Model the fold of this input.
Amino acid sequence: MKLYNILFEAKKETKKSLELPQDEEITSEEKQKAYSGLSDTELQQLGTGNFIPYDDWPRFRKYMVKKSTLANPGLDPDLTAYTPGETLNLLQHPTISSWLDEISNHTVPEEFDTVVFVPCAKTKPWEGCSTGIYGSYNRLRQEYGNLYFVTISEPLGIVPQDMWASFPQYDNPGLFKNAAQRSDMFTSDWKRLFGVESYLQTPFDSSAYNQAIEVLSNTIKKFIENNKKLRPELNFLSFVEDSPFKIGKTNVGSHSDMLTKTGIINPEDRYTKRAAPREEPYGHIKNILGTRKIINLKEKI
Done:
């Protein structure tokens, strides 16, 4: 078994053993912070339908932070957001707001002629990663000296490859539209922790979602416009779609929504992140680069 699979299984088993903190383990300050991060709509959702009970939210949020830390021991707990309302608040955090202001002016180095947008990943940081999707991206970086990879991220907007080792360590699944992806919980997890036979749902404020997408798409748009102004010949491709991109499609992920909102990425330049679910993206991206006549510099030499 590969080391990546061994580590993945170990994390999965550890996650299974995680328990909800007891009420007495949550300080009054933690409770206040857990509720204050939610929008009014999200506060009203708690305890209704299949949403998490109101009194359980602070305990569940602390549990989520523990899970996030398992995936990334370097995580800053203050840079976590598990709902759209929390994401909007996170965008105002000094670390994040400063990043968004500065990164839109980031310049693509002259040796690169093609920018490749890719999705973020829960396991961080990404520099030097040899497994998972970032193993594929790093392999392609080594082969194609003219490709400049840029991660589409919530809450950072973009993370250029130069900063894959040095960006603020966050976890922000709060904009995932799929409830299971947002909580990273299976039905068995809900039964073990809450004693329910079906999954519960974390709060989701659609209005807050749209506001967050607006902020993040503006950052991406400024980055593209600034670099296009400097170098009009620069190409931009994206590999973030879950399914083939179509204009007007509504059931898409936050990364796709961000790119669509910019209004300046051509539909014909937007591709799926991989050829099939759970398949590594290396071969898929390389095939498309071939159809686009983008030459592997090592092969050219």
Remarks:
- Confidence is low (pLDDT under 50) at residues 1-13.
- The beta strands are 114-119, 147-153, 157-160, 235-241, 270-272.
